[in-house]
UniProtKB/TrEMBL annotation:
Pathway: Amino-acid biosynthesis; L-methionine biosynthesis via de novo pathway; L-homoserine from L-aspartate: step 3/3; Amino-acid biosynthesis; L-threonine biosynthesis; L-threonine from L-aspartate: step 3/5. Belongs to the homoserine dehydrogenase family. Residues 355-431 form the ACT domain. Keywords: Amino-acid biosynthesis, Methionine biosynthesis, NADP, Oxidoreductase, Threonine biosynthesis. This is Homoserine dehydrogenase. NCBIfam families: PRK06349.1. The keyword Nucleotide-binding does not apply. PANTHER family: HOMOSERINE DEHYDROGENASE.
Length: 435
């Protein structure tokens, strides 16, 4: 039997995820080695502050603050520091030293993916990033390998556990947005500054990664349309449930047929009404799920923990075994592909449905007036519900669901409704997805 030398692993970061990865390698090294066919040796763990308390028992002699030297002496570098710098420079340095890289850093991949993938392909190195989207859930490898022979048509993902936790509490407990956010912060799901989660930046980074992978096209994160959940109200959530929907923050990546016969890619993040019958409606708490529609495979759903140190470490260790096996077997491995190079479709050109809530004066002729606004913009109404409130000055709340329309027409309809003299207020607009 051929004896392989140990595969040297450098770990950058020993925080929530990194400490768990170190712990698993140190405690289950023999089992991992048996799966790989060679020994795995953790040669060092780079941190910022060597005296910080760790959640795993990492021998002090492995801890270093000299990440640069560490990455130049490893076969596989696992980056779990987060942030753009020094993670970017260290990963490029690792690649140029001939190492394969594993990272969970969605921000880095969404902003600098092409630079990193290009550098890797020049030297035949590989980048693994299963943990960068939806924590423990296997979704990168299914898209990159299992579905490589299929044509993905659409991905709908609940990829931010914090916002799902918040929206779920509003829906199931009738809490306000403020109270749910406070609870998310108290439980450690949300940061003290929750902007990245509640404004959809985190989900947009994941949408960029998923869209790029699924459609073999580089989708820059600044071309992902983004709306957060901060404008969603308890009233909207309750009205949605009464109508048979639940509101979820969705990351959507979609293949779009263009008028000139070509295909484009749409990547977008917004809160949307999802029918209660859709599998994504059953994703509660801080869980994540990614619903994939492919031409041959049909619908697939991947569900599980989207974050957490030990859970995310599972995805990192899966990448580690794959990367280490390649060191044993050799060969080029799976590379990133951007061959389709499809145009990115702006939000104005996508097709969706709107659910519009209006406050109107309750007087004869109002409905006809509103109907004419819809028909002027070529938008067809699918449902209309009216509730009259007030006695002396009767006003009505109208909830109007549209058929599928082009976003630009739907948005123009809302603008025209807001400007109409019979409309007192457009009190809510939500897209409907998953029908
Ligand atoms: P974390 O708890 O903040 O840990 C970061 C670690 O990196 C710490 O050990 C820190 O050192 C070290 N570090 C930071 N800057 C450094 C620098 N300049 N030089 C050397 N070491 C440095 O982060 P985390 O939650 O484990 O997240 C790590 C990565 O995984 C991020 O990209 C994150 O987006 C991703 N991720 C996390 C989760 C999750 O549930 N936490 C889920 C999916 C993906 P000190 O300990 O000395 O400060």
């Amino acid at each position: 039997m051929i004896e392989y030398r140990n595969i040297r692993i450098a770990l950058l970061g020993a925080g929530s995820v990194g400490a768990q990865v170190a712990d698993q390698i140190l405690r289950h090294g023999d089992e991992l080695a048996a799966r790989v066919g060679a020994g795995l040796e953790l040669v060092g763990v780079a941190v910022r502050n060597p005296d910080s308390a760790r959640t795993a028992d990492i021998p002090q002699h492995l801890i270093t603050t000299d990440a640069e030297t560490l990455v130049r002496n490893a076969d596989i570098v696992i980056e779990l520091m987060g942030g753009i710098e020094p993670a970017r420079t260290l990963i490029l340095s690792a690649i140029n030293s001939g190492a394969d890289v594993i990272t969970a850093n969605k921000a880095l991949l969404a902003h600098h993916g092409p630079e990193i993938f290009d550098a890797a392909s020049q030297v035949g190195a590989q980048i693994f990033y299963e943990a960068a989207v939806a924590g423990a859930i296997p979704i990168i490898r299914p898209l990159r390998e299992s579905l490589a022979g299929d044509r993905v048509s659409r991905i709908l993902g609940i990829v931010n556990g914090t916002t799902n936790f918040i929206l779920d509490r509003i829906d199931t407990l009738g809490e306000s947005m403020e109270a749910s956010l406070q609870m998310a912060q108290d439980l450690g799901y949300a940061e003290a500054d929750p902007t990245a989660d509640v404004e959809g930046f985190d989900a947009a980074q994941k949408a960029a990664i998923l869209a790029s992978l699924a459609f073999h096209t580089h989708v820059p994160v600044d071309q992902v349309y983004r709306e957060g959940i901060t404008k969603v109200s308890l009233d909207q959530v309750q009205a949605a449930r009464k109508a048979g929907y639940v509101i979820k923050l969705l990351a959507i990546a979609e293949r779009v047929a263009l008028e000139d016969g070509r295909e484009g890619v749409s990547a977008r993040v917004y809160p949307a009404m999802v029918p209660l019958t859709h599998p994504l409606a059953a994703v509660h708490g801080a869980y994540n799920a990614v619903f994939v529609e492919a031409e041959a495979a049909g619908s697939l759903m991947f569900y599980g923990a989207g974050a957490g140190g030990i859970q995310t470490a599972s995805a990192v260790l899966g990448d580690l075994v794959t990367a280490a096996r390649r060191h044993v077997i050799g060969g080029p491995g799976v590379v990133e592909s951007a061959h389709a190079n499809m145009p990115i479709v702006p939000i104005s050109a996508i097709s969706t449905r709107y659910n519009i809530t209006l406050e109107v004066t309750d007087a004869p002729g109002v409905l006809a007036n509103i109907a004419s606004v819809f028909s002027t913009h070529g938008v067809s109404v699918e449902s209309l519900e009216q509730k009259t409130v007030g006695v002396e000055v009767p006003t009505a709340t109208l909830v109007i669901g549209t058929h599928v329309g082009i976003e630009a027409d739907l948005a123009a309809t809302v603008d025209a409704l807001a400007a109409s003299p019979v409309v007192e207020r457009v009190s809510g607009v939500l897209r409907v997805e998953g029908l």
